[in-house]
Amino acid sequence: MALPKRHRLQSSRSFSQVYKRGQKAHARCLVARALAPQPSSSANSRPETAAKTSAESGNSSAQLLKAQSPKTDSKRVPDRGDFALASTRFGISISRKVSKKAVVRNHIKRQIRAALLALMPQVRGGRWVVITVRSAAVTCEYDDFLRELRKVLTALEVLHGD
């Protein structure tokens, strides 16, 4: 069973942000990185400042209104207040180094998704998590993934402490 769409981290841009700025926790078969995204810089810019720079450059009033209105780009990182209420999003990254066979890689991803679904009631909102699979995962079973996910997600404060 797949993760619900609201719990999926899909864009490569989001993965890159998590890799660059996220905290990391290791286990034998997995490495997890978690990030509570910061507000984007465009959300923090003041409209008065944009209006002054537009007026100084001699732009028309239509361009002034456009500069003052906030962007409604769906790809933009939400403000921190929105993120606290947003669902945690998960992405799974598995390399061909783990196994050359797509069947094996997909089997591992299905087991990890099932373990994530089992842990979903304990997950805190507002985080982006990327789970990177290590080569040792080829020998792991569902119970191993469940135990390791619980360990790394608790270390990253994505799961509520029991």
Order of secondary-structure elements: HEEHHHHEHEH
Label the overall shape: globular
Average of pLDDT: 79
By DSSP, the count of extended strands is 4
Widest sheet: strand ordering: 1-2-4-3
Structural class: alpha+beta
For the biggest sheet, the summary is: 4 strands, mixed
Helix content: 40-55%
Would you mind describing this structure in some detail?
There is one protein chain. With 162 residues, this protein is α+β, with helices and mostly antiparallel strands. 43% of the residues lie in helices and 13% in strands. It has 7 helices and 4 strands. It has a 4-stranded mixed beta sheet, sandwiched between helices. Helix 3 packs antiparallel against helix 4 and helix 6 packs across helix 7. The chain starts with 11 loop residues before the first helix and ends in a 7-residue tail after the last helix.
List the helices and strands and how they pair.
Layout: H1 12-21, E1 23-26, E2 30-35, H2 41-44, H3 47-56, H4 61-68, H5 80-85, E3 89-93, H6 102-119, E4 128-133, H7 142-155
Parallel strand pairs: 3-4
Antiparallel strand pairs: 1-2, 2-4
Relevant terms:
alpha+beta, four-stranded mixed beta sheet, 4 strands
Quick rundown:
The protein contains seven helices and four strands, in the order αββααααβαβα. The protein has about 160 residues and is of the alpha+beta class. A hairpin with a 3-residue loop joins strand 1 (about 25) and strand 2.
